[in-house]
Amino acid sequence: MEKAVWRFIDSGDNSPSFNMALDEALLEWHGAGKIPPVVRFYGWNPATLSIGYFQRIEREIDMDAVQQLGLGFVRRPTGGRGVLHEHELTYSVIVTEDYPDMPKTVTEAYRVISEGILQGFQNLGLEAYFAGPKTSAEKEALKNPRSAVCFDAPSWYELVVEGRKVAGSAQTRQKGVILQHGSILLDLDEDKLFSLFKYPNDKVKERMQRAFKSKAVAINQISSRKIELEEAKKAFKEGFEAGLRIKLDPYTLSEEELDYVNALAKNKYESEDWNFKR
């Protein structure tokens, strides 16, 4: 059987507003039938804190710390918790809900899309697997996560290596199109990450950071050798092709497409109305 051909975009390092605008534009273009499904890889310049669509900045985020560290900041169109995008490979997948064999439920579609990420980890020699919440307490924590930190919050079909979370993803659906994007950590500065959030007191912060170490891990903390970004890109590109049974065809945005994305970035994702008013 001939494999479906999806578009593959490696857009490199870009501003936080551009990154979110391009994901939204791809969702819009695919929904309008202008482009096939897409897998995109990208990075961040500067390193950025992104927060979930529903997060409250004044309650959860230390914006003074974000500014002092020279980090970018953006609110995602997807849910989930705060993510420090620094030493990582970020991916997005855009595909219609009625794509062949795509489950209708969010959790099952997440598992199918994340099969490509699972294959990518295995291509790097890591024994990754899916682990979901087992107890009623773990399931309840999905509805009301206590932590503002993405990799500290539980999720369905979590990707884990050696019992610890290795990828954090979020999903939204608009007009029949799925956008799933997420972070694949190569390295992680835990002190920097935990300095970006608000806590009732220092003891709570220390306890949460200790617990975090047992829940999340970056690739280069567990790999027997140093994994560089280009090797990770190759492994996960091939992982998506194998996991989704597709062929990825590289694509470069046209000038017209870039103009559209830049305008959306400026007008929406750089605006205070979008980033701060929730």
Automatic annotation (TrEMBL):
Alphabetic keyword roster: Acyltransferase, Transferase
Catalytic activity, EC: 2.3.1.181
Site (Lowers pKa of active site Cys): K165
Highest rank taxon of the organism: Bacteria
A GO molecular-function descriptor: lipoyl(octanoyl) transferase activity
Cross-referenced SUPFAM superfamilies: Class II aaRS and biotin synthetases
Active-site residues, record numbering mapped to chain: C150
Pathway where it operates: Protein modification; protein lipoylation via endogenous pathway; protein N(6)-(lipoyl)lysine from octanoyl-[acyl-carrier-protein]
InterPro entries associated with the record: aa-tRNA-synth_II/BPL/LPL, BPL_LPL_catalytic, LipM, Octanoyltrans_LipM/LipL
Biological function: Catalyzes the transfer of endogenously produced octanoic acid from octanoyl-acyl-carrier-protein onto the lipoyl domain of GcvH, an intermediate carrier during protein lipoylation.
Extra remark: In the reaction, the free carboxyl group of octanoic acid is attached via an amide linkage to the epsilon-amino group of a specific lysine residue of lipoyl domains of lipoate-dependent enzymes. The reaction proceeds via an octanoyl-thioester enzyme intermediate.
Protein name from the UniProt record: Octanoyltransferase LipM
Gene: lipM
